[in-house]
Amino acid sequence: MPQKREKLIAVVGGREPSLEEARLAEEVGRELARRGAILICGGLSGVMEAACRGATSEGGLTIGILPGNSSDDANPHVRIPIVTAAGHARNMAVVKSARAVIAIGGGYGTLTEIAYARESDIPVIGLNTWSISRNDQTDDSIIVTEDPARAVDIAISSE
Description:
Helix content is 35%, strand content 23%. The chain has helices at 19-34, 47-57, 90-96, 108-119, 148-157; strands spanning 8-13, 38-41, 62-66, 80-83, 100-104, 124-127, 132-134, 137-139, 142-144. Strands 4-3-2-1-5-6-9 form a seven-stranded parallel β-sheet, sandwiched between helices. It has a two-stranded antiparallel sheet with strand order 7-8. β7 and β8 (137-139) form a beta hairpin. α1 (19-34) runs parallel beside α2 (47-57), α1 (19-34) packs across α5 (148-157) and α3 (90-96) crosses α4. The two termini are 18 Å apart.
C-alpha cells in the first residue's frame, strides 16, 4: 500500500526582494506551517530566508537545497540543509521535489524554476512575479494572486 506523501511546497524568489516581496514570502511561510506543509527552497537569503523565517516562527519544517559545498551557507531558518555543489542546477531539485511552487518576485533564476515546474505540470502560484507570453499571447499557466493565504490554499490543494 503506497504511503501518503507529505505536502512539500517550494517557495522560490530572488535573493534581493523588495520589502513587499519579503513580507509576502514571510506570510507564505507562516501559512504553509499553519497548514502542516513542508517548505522547500534554495536555502539562501532573500525570499528564501523570509519564507523560512515565517515557517519556523509557526513551528514549520524547512528544507534548503543549497547550491554550494557547505551547509553553513544555509540561512539560519533552514532546518534541513541539503548540500549539492550543483550551483544553479539545484533549482531543478527544488522544483521537482514539490507538489506545487509559489513564486515571489525573482529574477532569471526564479524564471528557470517556473519553467521547470510548468514543463513538469507542477502548478505555479505567483505573487508579484513573472508573467509569460509567446507570440503576443499571454500564457496564463501561472496562477496569479496577491494574497499569501490564497497562494498556499491553491498550492496545498494541488495534486
